[in-house]
Design a protein that fits this description.
single chain; alpha+beta; Immunoglobulin-like; 4-stranded antiparallel beta sheet; elongated
């Protein structure tokens, strides 16, 4: 043996395969410990919003409790409407009993920004999905995490189905539109009366066609044949 060499016992030699096994075991135990400490492993979810109320939602978003920098969303929704799909917010892959989020919202034209902490009900079939922010008729808010939309039987929301305008709301919208159309017709008729003689025949004919169409729209809104 070379006098400068350090003797080595066979027990001190670890093969490459054994090194990989040891590293794998360490990684596995680390994962188990992390899972035990953090049962709600996060996953990216799109944000959607539903408005079952007659109020216009100027802003709605979601945050984690105690962390205003964790927000996602920021949609605006018409009365009895649905917002678009916005990315993104982190939700636990598995539901747990103390799962809560903060719904941030503002009704038009009130500038007050509200923050409401709400509980998330169990995921339908235990499957995570999009986070849905919900505004109810009384102005309260809620949230669910669901892979299934409001029209499906698995939907976990308190109200089943997408928002539907009430008869009263539809009637109010009809009256508002009728008022606007009549004002537009009056403006067209006055303009033609005052300037008709100075306009080319083709222009007069074009304006008259618009007036006739406007009258048909008004008749339809009034329920006349």
């Amino acid at each position: 043996m070379d006098g400068g060499a350090i003797p080595c016992r066979c027990a001190d030699v670890i093969s490459g395969d054994k090194v990989m096994i040891i590293l794998f075991r360490q990684w596995l135990w680390r994962g188990i410990l992390l899972a035990a400490c953090f049962p709600g492993v996060g996953m990216a979810a799109s944000i959607q919003a539903l408005n079952y109320s007659s109020r216009e939602v100027n802003y709605i978003a979601v945050e984690n409790p105690g962390n205003t920098n964790s927000g996602g969303g920021g949609d605006a929704i018409d009365p009895y409407g649905q917002g678009g799909t916005i990315c993104c917010f982190s939700v636990p892959e598995k539901w747990h009993a103390d799962l809560k989020v903060v719904v941030v919202y503002q009704f038009y034209p009130d500038p007050t920004l509200h923050r409401e902490t709400v509980s998330i009900p169990p995921y339908p079939n235990g499957k995570a999905g999009d986070i849905w922010l919900i505004v109810y008729e009384d102005g309260s808010v809620g949230a669910v995490v669901s892979h299934y939309g409001p029209s499906l039987p698995e939907w976990p929301g308190k109200i089943k189905g997408y928002p539907v305008p009430t008869k009263e709301y539809r009637e109010e919208r009809r009256k508002q539109k009728l008022k606007r159309e009549k004002a537009s017709l009056l403006t067209l008729e006055r303009g033609l009366l005052l300037r008709g003689n100075s306009l080319p025949d083709e222009k007069v004919k074009e304006i008259q066609e618009i007036i006739d169409f406007q009258k048909k729209v008004i008749q339809s809104l009034e329920g006349k044949p």
